[in-house]
Amino acid sequence: MKRMRTLAGISILALVLAACSSGTTDTAAEETAAALDDSNCAAAESFCVGLVTDIGKVDDKSFNQSAHEGAMAAAAEVGGFYKYIETTDTKDYAANMAQFTDKSYDVIVTVGFLMAEATVTAAKANPNTKFIGVDQFQGEEVANVTGLIFPEDQAGYAAGYLAGLMTKTNKLGQVLGLEIAPVQKFAKGFEAGAKAANANVSVTTVYHPPADNGFGDPVWGAAEAKKQLSQGADIIFGAGGGTGNGALIEIAKAEGAGTSIFCIGVDTDQWGTVPEAQPCLVTSAMKGLVEGTAGLVKAAFDGSIKGGNFLGTTGLADYHDLASAVPADVQSKVAEVVAGLKDGSIMTGVTL
């Protein structure tokens, strides 16, 4: 079984891990780590981890970044080597993975629902490499592919329930990335939760038109958020990488942000990753992307990883500085809903 990498690799990765622990990335440290020689990945004593992002950057403040931080942390913890490749065109998925398989990497993490088919194809062609597909449901079990999936509908439901209780206009909005299964689950969960809390609420939902920049179009996200605000929405859920972030940042500029106008982030606690959104960011619908990715990389290292699907966790982020804007009885009701979703006593009713 492959194990230790060079001490130089370990020390550099430790520096990168320290940078990420604060919710930011150290570009210089990451570039140094990425530049380390990976020519020895085929050696029995090495453990090499590669990550291929979906369209968008590794510092997208959302799902790419979270998976990246988890994989990098796990590699550092076990003394492995880590490198990532940013995808700029969907046609490059296979070629990007091949850069790692050609050098005998032990684990390849592929990020995003859109990469599912390419991941399985690469895994079948490289049976000795472990693949971790983030947000990739495995309908057919392939021994060396593990899909890290989440009950996004539950996180969306909890966020929607909060919004349904807090809205004064009974108008809510959603500005989303591409209309793919994980995003749909967030959206449908949000609407179900909002209507469970408030039967009078209406939810306006927009998905980014099909395009390679569906998760990296902050200008479109901002324009759609501005439109929904003009139509009376007082709480808007932004979910979709840089596209959703653009919506959050636009809402934060609105008059009444943090008092009568609020926004909700996604995937990670965006209070730390998108500080520009803090004026309106009441919470985030989170997925345990960092923990889930790190756990599976470590499982690949110790040999306990299994093919098929691995269910990660979801929840709501802290209210941070806007806690005073959320009435105590609302906080209590939302906490009960989060607990009910976790123990199964509350069902979202979402199906795809």
Question: Percent helix among the residues?
Answer: 40-55%
- CATH fold-level assignment of the largest domain: Rossmann fold
Regions with little confidence, pLDDT below 50 for 5+ residues: 1-25, 31-35
Q: What is the CA–CA distance across the termini?
A: 40 Å
Category by helix and strand content: alpha/beta
Question: Oligomeric status of the shown chains?
Answer: single chain
- How confident overall, as mean pLDDT? 91
Radius of gyration: 20 Å
- How many individual β-strands? 12
Largest pleated sheet:
6 strands, parallel
**Number of discrete domains:** 2
Number of helical elements = 12
The H/E string reads HHEHEHEHEEHEHEHEHEHEHEEH
Please write the CATH class name of the largest domain. Alpha Beta
CATH superfamily of the largest domain: Response regulator
CATH architecture of the largest domain: 3-Layer(aba) Sandwich
Anisotropy-based shape = elongated
**Strand arrangement, major sheet:** 2-1-3-4-5-11
Strand content: 15-25%
Describe this structure as you would to a colleague.
Helix content is 42%, strand content 19%. It is an alpha/beta fold. The protein folds into 2 domains: 7-150 and 289-313, Response regulator (Rossmann fold), CATH 3.40.50.2300; 152-287 and 319-343, Rossmann fold (3-Layer(aba) Sandwich), CATH 3.40.50.2300. Strand 8 (235-239), helix 9 (241-252) and strand 9 (262-267) form a beta-alpha-beta unit. The longest helix is centred in the middle third of the chain and has 17 residues, at 181-197. The N and C termini lie far apart (40 Å). Mean pLDDT is 91; it is low at 1-25 and 31-35.
